[in-house]
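Worked example 2:
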Amino acid sequence: MDVQFLVSFTLIIATFALYIGIAIFNRAKATSDFYVAGRGVPPVFNGMAIGADWMSAASFIGMAGTVMVLGYDGLAYVMGWTGGYLLLTFLLAPQLRKYGRYTVPEFIGDRYQSNIARLLAAVATIIISFTYSIGQLSGSGVVIGRLLEVHTAVGTLIGVVLIAFYSAMGGMKGITWTQVAQYLVLIIAYLIPVIFMALQLTGNPLPWVSYGEIIGKLQVLDQDLGISEYVVPFTENTKWQFLALMFTLMAGTAGLPHVIVRFYTVSTMKAARWSGAWALLFIGLLYLSAPAYAAFSRFILMTQVAGSAIDSLPAWTTSWVDTGRLSVADQNGDGILQWSEIVISNDIVVMATPEIANLGIFVIGLMAAGAMAAALSTAGGLMIAISAALSHDIYYRSINPNASEKQRLLVGRWSIVLATVIAGLVALNPPGAITQIVAWAFALASGTFFPALLLGVWWRRSNGPGVIAGLIVGLSVTLGYIFLAKYGGFTILGIIDTGAGVFGAAAAIITNIVVSLNTAAPTQQVQDEVVDLRYPEQMSYRDGEVWLDDSQDS
């Protein structure tokens, strides 16, 4: 057993013990604990939990690798995911918190006064969260597979057991405080390697400043090899795909049910706004570092691995080849590994780079622990969203309204276990790269929840028939385009499956507006409630006027 394995294994086991201990200590004892953490989480810690919930395996493991492979075109992921939080923080989160429900489907059902709309929203929540969780479990398989030097499928099954246990145990209360710890682990794990690489390659410990020097060197290397230049836009995809993907990720962010519910865990509307502000700061630390990480990784691969003799490659290559995510083959038989002969999965770039750059066993182990924290934190939040949709929106609100707290918690916990196992089985043979699978989840959210929530908060004329039609059309158009683009080769303006949300959102918004205008308007009470959402909590909208209410907490 080598030293590297011992260090990585020890760090991961230590962090697992921390997460499970937190989940047990904060075990949910009531439904409000299980769904919204008792609405008592301070904004700064909620911001950390949002950051961990948000910075999934796609962000931590996949994003820098995607930028490394796609170059400029990969920046759509950085811009879309960051911009989406601005949309969510300013347009939706405070208003949804003021409405005071447990879940997004519950808001939609009550706002539009429609049980059918709530059930459709619950089904959409399950589809979106399930799709997203496949990417997270696939990511955990990459990490565990490399650590134990087994195939990623075996690593995925191990991840399933861990996630099912601590998510079912702690509910939202346990998940929240677990995610605070996971954020600290993952951000330290991400920043240390990129800072070390900046020092190693440029002599400057600030990667956000120094990676421009490496970009210039990469341009020269690309020209010498006669390949597409790293910084030239739209070489991998069209301009329309770049814009469509960016919109899909932004709108999807503002409509993701497992992210929105995090804003329900604070006490006030003001606290929801501050949670969003803190989350942007915490997320920005990683997102500003990802392009630097990608540039450093590509430069090290091009200068220290490509051009090496095929029979004297470093030991790390064998370990990653065993996971099934790296291929190094001497295709032209010259005994030298060419850049074009390295086939590296987007999903292993971040994990492999500390080994490639020889940053030391502790940094490599820390990266493994951080990657697991990223995958586990988001997967936990997703399982809570699926559980809430099944146990609260479907079981409690539709099937058994008289269910006791004990029954509801039992259904919620078993929902998590079953959802995790099923998602894990699909993740054994994932239908795409981590970032691609996650982009599908964002496309589905942008085609369903984003239009329903946007119009539900900002257009009081939107009604039950309108949102029902919008949810059905948006979900159908988005799913249809994803399947046609991925498996049928069908595209519009070069927009591929990951940009499908732009069509789903447009179709859903148009459908909602047309149907709402051609059916009965909501009651005046509902319309007044919608307008009331736009004002701070100490103010309310009554009888066509805005009133100051000193009795409410601001």
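Residues 73 and 234 are 6 Å apart (CA to CA). The two ends are 58 Å apart (CA to CA).
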